[in-house]
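Rather than argue in generalities, we reproduce a single protein record, letters for residues, whole numbers for local backbone shapes, just as it appears below:
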Amino acid sequence: MELILWRHAEAADGIPDHSRALTEKGRQQAKHMAAFLNPRLPPNTRILVSPALRTQQTANALNKKFVTEQAIGTHANAQEVLNAAGWPLANGAILLVGHQPWLGEVAALLMAGTTDCWSIKKGAVWWFSRREREGDYQAVLRLVIAPEHL
């Protein structure tokens, strides 16, 4: 299983939080990251996206079909997100487009076994693979990249 975490690109401040749109910089971040991801995503990658406007706009940059998943909304926690993704037992690849703090909590849980508040930059991608070792599953961090590095 491949688990790809993509934080939404830069969004305007405002209320209600759910309706915040990407800024011009955010649209450019999403466009550049989508151009990077598109040729690298495995075929048939499942894409789950938070219902918030900024994540929907970020995912739209891929020009691929995706599913809006309530379970990975702004108030999700790491375990809810991993359950929605089917980690670690699902097959294939899944791309989750979402938010802090749960993105950082998922990364920390996979890498360190605890839900610490790790920071994931706006528009950045963290890509994990599942490895089975001695009957247990481990997460292998394959890639971390932020839009400004493209």
